[in-house]
Amino acid sequence: MHNPQLNKNGELTHLLTIEGLPRAVVTQILDTASSFVGISDREVKKVPLMRGKSVFNLFFENSTRTRTTFEIASKRLSADVINLNISASSASKGESLLDTIDNLAAMHADMFVVRHAQSGAPYLIAKHLTDTGRSHVHVVNAGDGRHAHPTQGLLDMYTIRHYKKDFSNLTVAIVGDILHSRVARSDIHALTTLGVPEVRAIGPRTLLPSGLEQLGVRVFTDMREGLKDVDVIIMLRLQNERMSGALLPSAQEYFKSYGLTTERLALAKPDAIVMHPGPMNRGVEIESAVADGAQAVILPQVTFGIAVRMAVMSIIAGN
Ligand code: CP
């Protein structure tokens, strides 16, 4: 089946999801990101790879890390970056998503970075641009509903490779609200694409989607069993805004069973790393002593996100 994010030469022209991306493309992004990591230490923190290009940040949903690091990444690539203030835009007056896109494309946009509460919104935009003869305008998914958050998945892979060097002998546990998590889905696709032999999902039954086993994931409802001897722990936030109805007794009860405490972390390998995409709820999914502890790599994840987003944008713009 045709992958809408690749051109006829198999090169990335949009980034919509990690699902179905060839391993070579994922590795190309991680390798390119490596070449950008050192740029922050240089006196001039810029390269001219996207000079003269206009990147429009369209965040229809709140964001701290993704929006800001896309802006920094665009500036480091020498692009002009425009942050549309959605609440002050005509979207708040009832303008349709595609009418907004048409108007911004008329301002000679070269790339849209899109976050939207509706799964599939970035696909819709990419298809609309292609159908209307503007396939030279690129779309990067910055998180759509509960579907995908591909640049988060890629920066998570970058972080794992940085600390663990090799994917081929790792056990990685993803813990928490997997049902509503676009990060979990992107991480699972990325980890299996990169050949991680054991990917675990740990959470209460009400927050575990069906079909995980078909994706090659081992499912655990007991935190102690699931954490045993893992190399990497990816903690997730309870996505209360995406839950309909009560799926949990309370945040306190959740922490008792699934919170990552120092005691539970000791079940993992001694050199295990702790990751979290943010935003983090201390005392709900993670204890502060763990979040701020020596095994946490949560802030390096954010820093690596700049290089990974530079890599994604420069590769796509070059294709
Ligand atoms: N990880 C992540 O997507 O965080 P933000 O919502 O702050 O962008």
Automatic annotation (TrEMBL):
The gene is pyrB. Pathway: Pyrimidine metabolism; UMP biosynthesis via de novo pathway; (S)-dihydroorotate from bicarbonate: step 2/3. The keyword Transferase applies. Its EC number is 2.1.3.2. This is Aspartate carbamoyltransferase. Residues 169-315 form the Aspartate/ornithine carbamoyltransferase Asp/Orn-binding domain. Belongs to the aspartate/ornithine carbamoyltransferase superfamily. ATCase family. Heterododecamer (2C3:3R2) of six catalytic PyrB chains organized as two trimers (C3), and six regulatory PyrI chains organized as three dimers (R2). Carbamoyl phosphate binds at residues 65-66, 115, 149, 152, 278-279.
